[in-house]
Design goal:
Layout: E1 2-7, E2 21-25, E3 31-34, H1 40-46, E4 54-58, H2 64-67, H3 70-79, E5 87-90, H4 94-99, H5 108-114, E6 130-133, E7 137-142, E8 145-151, E9 163-169, E10 172-176, H6 184-189, E11 195-199, H7 204-212, H8 223-233, E12 238-241, H9 251-257, H10 270-279, E13 286-288, E14 293-296
Parallel strand pairs: 3-4, 4-5, 5-6, 10-11, 11-12, 12-13
Antiparallel strand pairs: 1-2, 1-14, 2-3, 7-8, 8-9, 9-10
Helix pairs in contact: 8-10
The protein binds zinc ion (2 copies).
One zinc ion binds near residues 10, 65, 179 and 242.
């Protein structure tokens, strides 16, 4: 199988990182998308993957950096002649989100206009995603893959459930955290995984800055905590992702982030600090994700 890190950034418009999105491609050619932040569809095309061939989408939670690419993905794969309805899995609230987008929602006019073309009348199901709101446990399976999900600790659950996943396919295990603080559910999802793809949003010093400056924040995992978690889970390899712009040199991002990040410390050198902190507790193969990174398993 092949894993393509389509987007490895977080909530801000980062010139160097698209938002969270991971594509899993099995040897049988089927593609499974995990999160669909801004830029996901264009990144698929850059990776030589037709979005119309991506049939399954799993949304970890409803923060916009994980879902705002969904309408563009669905609409552009309609225009790329998708056949069949996209299958979308996500937390409670996913159905409402999807229902507000297409024929009865935000893109009603576009769909009405574009449907005048003969070709667009041939695949109306492509813009009618079939939504499954999931519960912890086995959330999807076919002959070649099983996807398990469990609650992780990120947004208060009464506002939005947040899921991590464990994927079993081709005799391998891949776990993906979504966004979360370190939690037991993620340790279990990642148990003996061949690859753990885990969020690592801020370095330790940035977390401390946010704590001291009293910035409201949702729970994330620090590099030191991630190293501990990966070792406890027995993960055979680790890929850290969902980087919160701390490596950016963009003046726009620095100005925008001035209230909540220590902007003088931002820059690519932070990646060395992140790696060293993960390494305090984890000695297996380590990758720090970048957009379009490809991992073969
Ligand atoms: Zn996020
Ligand atoms: Zn989030």
């Amino acid at each position: 199988m092949k894993i393509t890190l389509l987007g490895t950034g977080a909530a801000l418009a980062d010139p160097d990182r698209c938002q969270s999105s991971i594509l899993l491609t099995l040897d049988n050619g089927r593609h499974y998308l995990f999160d669909c932040g801004e830029g996901a569809t264009r990144q698929m095309v850059r990776a030589d993957i037709n979005p119309a061939d991506v049939g399954w989408v799993f949304l970890s939670h409803l923060h916009y950096d994980h879902i705002c690419g969904l309408p563009f993905f669905v609409l552009s794969s309609w225009v790329f002649n998708r056949t069949g309805a996209p299958q979308v899995f996500g937390p409670r609230g996913t159905r409402s989100y999807v229902e507000h987008l297409f024929e009865k929602g935000a893109f009603k006019v576009d769909i009405l206009a574009r449907s005048q073309y003969k070709l667009r009348k041939s695949n109306p199901e492509a813009i009618l995603p079939e939504v499954t709101e999931v519960k912890p446990g086995l959330i999807y399976q076919d002959a070649d893959i099983k996807v398990y999900a469990d609650w992780v600790e990120h947004i208060p659950r009464e506002i939005c459930e947040c899921f991590g996943v464990r994927v079993e396919a081709e005799g391998k295990v891949i776990a993906f955290s979504g966004d979360t603080a370190p939690c037991e559910a993620m340790v279990e999802l990642a148990r003996d995984a061949d690859l753990l793809i885990h969020e690592c949003t801020f370095p330790e010093a940035f977390i401390e800055h946010r704590r001291k400056s009293n910035v409201g924040t949702f729970a994330h995992t620090s590099p030191t905590e991630l190293g501990k978690l990966a070792t406890r889970a027995g993960a055979k390899s680790l890929c850290a992702t969902h980087f919160g712009h701390f490596d950016s040199l963009s003046p726009v991002i620095k100005r925008a982030a001035g209230a909540h990040l220590p902007v003088d410390e931002m820059g690519p050198h932070q990646m060395d600090i992140v790696a060293a902190d993960i390494r305090k507790h984890y000695r297996g193969p380590l990758r720090l994700a970048h957009d379009l990174m490809r991992i073969d398993l």
